[in-house]
Amino acid sequence: MKRLLLVLVALMLALPLAWAEDAEIPRLQGGQDRETALVLTEEQLGKQWLTYVSMDNFGKNVTNSWFRLEVPVDGTLTFSAWNVGNQVNRPCITNAKGDKLLWKSIAVNDQLHYEINATAGDTLYIEFASFGYGVAMDMKFAICYDGYHQEGVYYEVAKEPTCTEAGERIFPCTICFSTYRSEVIPALGHTAGEAEIVEEATCLKTGLKIAKCTVCGEVVSSEEIAVMPHTPDVVTTVKMATCTEDGLAEQHCTVCNATLATEVHPALGHTLGEWKDEVMATCTADGLRKQYCAVCNVVLNEEKVPAHGHAAGEWKDEVQATCTADGLRKQYCASCHEVLAEETVAAYGHSPAELAVTREATCLQSGLKEKLCSTCGVALESQQLDALGHRYTEWEITTEATKDAEGEQRRHCTNCGDTQYEKLPKVEKLFGIF
Predict the structure, then answer these.
(1) How many beta carbons lie within 10 A of that of residue 228, not counting itself?
(2) Can you tell me whether residue 254 is helix, strand or coil?
(3) 3-state secondary structure of 40
(4) Phi-psi region at 53: left, alpha or beta (left = phi > 0; alpha = psi -120 to 50)
(5) Contact 95/103 with Cβ under 8 angstroms?
(6) Mean pLDDT across the chain, nearest whole number?
(7) Is the pLDDT confidence value at 266 over 90?
(8) Residues 205 and 107 in one domain
(9) pLDDT tens sequence across 336-358
(10) In what order do the strands lie in the sheet with 259-265?
């Protein structure tokens, strides 16, 4: 439809195309008013006519052109007009009641195409009147109706034909550009291209070869490709034979991996291997050893290993004897370290040393002499030493006393350094004044 509209626009702009030269168009003059309107006949439909209108210098229509149309059948009526004068013209179409169906200005050299849905028996009035003082001019017009169109050589493809569906060609009226007839464009039919393989045949399924239409791409033919034969590979072991289970060898297709042949390898049987100690025998408990298959490591035999008994080892001091307390020593098994025997080690008593000063006497604290055990250091005998007492120096004045302030003197112990301080009274004033 868009293409049709474009063609119609082109026709309107490029040619007076459908409109004949003025000299070739016959004149058809209507009546002066609605009552005297000229009745259009069916022979006058679908043809171009030239009519005349004029107005005097006082603005009065001198010559009007009225036409009356009795609609013959139901359908679409197209009114076409072209202003070939030198002033704006405004054609008017009314119905029998006087209702305006069209009242539109047409500029100089402009065309107008207006469609009206008409019913058989309707009466339509077409009026041409001039606008402008002292104007006299011509108007071209035509009324096209279903079955009353002017044929031409122009056509438009409304629907392109395809390989499988017909198309449509339409012919527009050269006056109003409405479609007055159409014809079928036959389907083109398929154009087969080269066949191509779309699915390769394999050892397991057929393949497919097709040919497509080079225009629409639809498949126009197909051919099945036969199943391919298998391609045997070398025989390979898929499961090794074990001591208790059979093995398996297979031959496969190198393409699809299908199994083509199988071969069973008998079980090998066990191979005796070495004995292994699972539980070591101890001094008091039996042990266990097993014999395994050298290939699959399964247990083939097992036997008990007798306990080997304790082996007496050396004695160890667990608790050392002291001056006042007994000690303890134990004998252990050299294999399992279990205690086999134990005995008490008697206390060996104190060893007195010489009486010696263990704390010196000071000015304020007494001293101490003790006799200690040379082994454990315990005091076996003690003697107290008297405190020395302080030995102070003479007093030394550090600050002289004055009439206004006290003085100060000090002394210290020559043994421990303890220092004592003492205030000195103020000097008395003479007569209590000086």
Answers:
(1) 17
(2) coil
(3) coil
(4) beta
(5) no
(6) 83
(7) yes
(8) no
(9) 888 888 888 888 888 888 888 88
(10) 236-239, 247-252, 259-265
